[in-house]
């Protein structure tokens, strides 16, 4: 694509590669061609837009990766500018400066090579913008000799600042608990396939702010059974988060996906971020309940639910494949409701007692503790731990550690390591109670979700005046 050229791109989450060796930012613009405030600037100091739709992921070998979730952008945002800047000299000295957009399957859908950069130090390299109900990519190549300040001013950014930063130094911003530094190196699959090879799938998790669902209303099954045959509402559980992630930083965050039906079915949920998720299943009936993930060959995977409980209710862990398409085989007698939730929606373990029944997924986020369990069922009780300390890939879970595998009524006390830990009650047909005791505070900040496979960018953004750190890089 040449300068000024444009073309439609698929309305899917796009991953943009900016090459090579420049600082990258994104400006989200309204119809007036201006940002609505500092929150509409995504850069190294604030790598995630509050909506979660635009994320600056990291850099590898001079290539900076930027995600634009076109399906998740707010209606007020009509353009997303891709901005490049240099702190070492004019952009004409940057070798092979280019922007390339990739679809989720790794296919290149647009590419612009900047061939006429001059003495400017900042440039709008490209933009994606709304047009005729879809999105287009434009090769812009508009440079600013007065650097980022000039570019920012043209797009409604307040460039005033109180004092210059110390020479050749960026004010340090330590990561918050559970976060990795925003500029941590990130390793991505090479989306450009070798000759004769199929494109390498590039997983594109695009989280949006998660709001814990309100109690689910009683719904009518498709066959319109009598009201007594409808699944019960999903009550708010004690210990569950009320405000999204609530300090949990592992895995993508997204809005719940709800499906309803009756009896046996195959359930498909699309556009999920790859990685572990929580499946919340409720069934009104007294027959057998079974749940399995389906492979890409439509074969049943490992069993998620295997129960003869009447009116089954439980939560289990499932893995979303790289293509973001989760398919499940359900065996059930009666109406049912199934929700796909992020890990952040799982119940936190505390010193307050939980009183539940059925399989469940619990989160331990504090220091060392003992988990006291009182199981009153007649069948198997199986409990596994997933320790996330030092685990670097939020698209997959580490190996589990089985801590309980017993039959019948039990009282168990399980020592827990420092969080973050996922506590999976894989099987628990029957009522149980659980709480923490001998709880200790964290002895160190937890380190998860950052590493060579994928770095999950922090969901928090910097406070007032955050943009000055970006502008100061252009003033050096």
Question: What can you tell me about this protein's structure?
Answer:
The protein folds into three domains: 186 residues, sav2460 like domains (Lipoxygenase-1, Sandwich), CATH 2.60.60; 100 residues, Sandwich (Jelly Rolls), CATH 2.60.120.380; 112 residues, Jelly Rolls (Sandwich), CATH 2.60.120. With 476 residues, it is mostly beta strands. About 21% of the residues have low confidence. It has two helices and 28 strands. A six-stranded antiparallel β-sheet has the order 1-11-10-7-3-4.
Question: In summary, what is this structure?
Answer:
With 476 residues, this protein is mainly beta.
Please tag this protein with its features.
single chain; 476 residues; mainly beta; Lipoxygenase-1; Jelly Rolls; 3 domains; 6-stranded antiparallel beta sheet; 5-stranded antiparallel beta sheet; 28 strands
- Which percent range fits the helix content? under 10%
Largest sheet entry: 6 strands, antiparallel
Strand content: 35-45%
Mean pLDDT: 79
Number of helices: 2
Q: Quick one: CATH superfamily of the largest domain?
A: sav2460 like domains
CATH topology of the largest domain: Lipoxygenase-1
Low-confidence segments, given as residue ranges, are 162-246, 449-464
Number of domains: 3
Question: How are the SSEs placed, and which strands pair?
Answer:
Elements: E1 6-9, E2 13-19, E3 23-29, E4 41-42, E5 54-60, E6 63-69, E7 79-85, E8 98-102, E9 108-113, E10 122-131, E11 134-144, H1 147-154, E12 257-262, E13 265-269, E14 275-283, E15 289-293, E16 305-307, E17 313-320, E18 326-331, E19 335-341, E20 347-348, E21 354-357, E22 360-364, E23 369-375, E24 380-387, E25 401-407, E26 410-416, E27 421-428, E28 431-437, H2 467-473
